[in-house]
Specification:
Layout lengths: L1 H33 L4 E7 L5 E7 L15 H4 L2 H8 L7 H7 L3 E3 L14 H4 L7 E3 L12 H14 L2 H17 L13 E2 L6 E2 L3
Parallel strand pairs: 3-4
Antiparallel strand pairs: 1-2, 5-6
Amino acid sequence: MRLKRSLDLALAVPLFAAVLPLFCGIWLLVRLKMGSPALFRQPRGGAGGSVFHFYKFRTMTDRRDRNGKLLPDAERLTPFGDWLRKNSLDELPQLWNVIRGDMSLVGPRPLLASYLERYDAEQRRRHEVRPGITGWAQVNGRNSLNWPEKFALDVWYVDHQSLRLDLLILWRTALVLVRRKGVTHGGSATMPEFLGKPNDCLPHH
């Protein structure tokens, strides 16, 4: 949708320019507190099932156990990283993904590329649109939702997307950020891994 893309650029470009000093400050603090790299880069599923590199500020260390396996997310999440997450400041680099055209301001959140082969036909419909920094699921529970609930909301958005709905989601996102609702899932540092079945999920490690 050309109008949607125009809205993305009209908002993302000046916003990225406005937050650039904050972006640089966070980048420096992450480097000082957690080392290099300051940006977390990961393959995620995009529109049409394509794969792109998704950017966030790093919030975890690379601490491993004696066998070289990464420790659970909760043990690697730093106090500063937790603060970035609670204030959603770790998401700022995704404005660059929007400018590049990998993402939209509004759409289903991009998930791990490894999930692409695990979706059923209905869940896969979330990839009929560009993924977003925020979306219908994020303003209706965020990480307090389970996977089936998230996917149902994502597909609802695909079926009802409009400029008016996007503006509503952006407005409600601002309210969610102020209230800091749904940042964690059941007290866990991150969402459990999606394994392809509604109840077949395990915590990230």
